[in-house]
User: What shape does this take?
Amino acid sequence: MKCCLTDPLEWLFPDCLNSVPGTPFFQADVPQGGVASVNVVLQDVPEETLMRFHALLPQDCDGWKIELFCLQGVPVKRNTGLYGFCENAEEPNTFVTRRAPFCVYDIMEPLPRTSFRVPPGSSAYQIRMEIPGGAKAGIRDIQFSFNHESVVFRVVVWDVPLVPCGRNSVMNTNWWSWDNIVHSHELENDSPAFYRMLKKYASIMYAARSNTALIPLRMLFTRDEKTGELELNRGKLRRIVKIFTEAGIYYLEGSPFGHRANNEWLSPDFQTIITDHRVDTEAANRDIASMASQLMHEIVRNQWQDRYFQHAADEPISVNAVSYRILVGLIRKYMPGIPILEAMSDPEAPLAGAVNISCPQVQCYENNREHYEDTRLQGDQIWLYTCCMPGGRYLNRLLDGELLRPTLLGWGCAYYRVNGFLHWGLNCYKSGSDPFQETTPQHGKTNFLPPGDTHIVYPGARGPWPSVRMEAQRTGLEDWEMIRVLQRKNAALADRIVAEVFRKFNDYIACAGAYRTARRKLLSALSEQTRK
Assistant: This one.
């Protein structure tokens, strides 16, 4: 049996494990309060091997949390398209890591830290170490042994404190699916078991440095069949907020009050959730007045005003801009002072002043920076997002782009000084599909969502399992925090370091070695600034 280490920001493939050029030594540079990770590949393992895992830590590593994960593969049946969704024959995407179909390690199944069975042949694992915020700076050589094979993981802790995820960290949200938690874990809706599972999802969101949680309004309002009145389940709302708050998540974002009529993308009209009334009708006014007023009362009662954002209707475009403005006007009337946050990537849409936080896709922002920066001059915030787009060379967090791309999203957001990042897919795989097997589900009549777009966690037997993409993006969020601190101390130096790996969202260095060098420079610069 052979044991070797590889960079956790480089993909591993099941069909290539025997030829992985790993080493018995790997170094990670981390801030205080950060996470150090490394991949382990076991090669030529005999059949039915019982593996004993042991970590030998130096004495000054009290409080360091070590987790061991078995990496599992997922199939990629189609490649990402040149512009988005999945590829078509007329416009091949040459910026993918491999041509589909192929299998790649993305799932991280938690393992006990004592012993476990290893499949014959070769297999892959990831070790994740949480470094306490008060850890002493310095070098630690940590020896990991798998039976009689040993490797050394060098962790260099810099005297750079990382901002904890929460109220003061960069804004980051991953939308979660209530229904998928229920169905994937075979739970009864609203049962005690459901809320216990929701706590686990809140914990993994926090581990991914999400400090903002979606509040699913559709699940909180019920409609009286006789009177038609909509009633907010206040206790249920408070319970959900308590779960996220106790997990460490500070900010709350109300899901949209409206959706496209008949769920048609080019519909000129938005309708209310639950009742489906067109938003320019008196019936819709009554619905929004009732829902928004009840929700606002609860926000004020619990003093959530500084924590709460509200969505109106997802991704408004030119054809439905008028309907969107009507909906926003109703929400503002009954929820005064609550900021409106929206994903909106049509710079031609007449929506100036409609929202407080514009959230364009990264390629839309890159190509229309003057437009979006003008809104910032008027006092708005800018968040960025990715979803079924962009494809091609652009940064995204998909299964067939370099694994460094999710990390560099944080560097790009930091470079442009945007305020937050949003993604729609924590566990939003299609209803009835197997998230372990279906990574490019059909979307509409002819489109397929790009590989991995729908989810970055997997429904394990006892709770959600992380993914290597989630960990890669979390690393980039750590970097975003540190770059933001250096920008306040020495903006020119911060920009020079970022430029070593990132110049635009479609112009970057997708090399893990170059990234490690740039991160070390970032930590060194922050350490030097701290000593001044």
Summary: The longest helix spans residues 468-489. The chain has eleven helices and 28 strands. The chain has a mean pLDDT of 96.
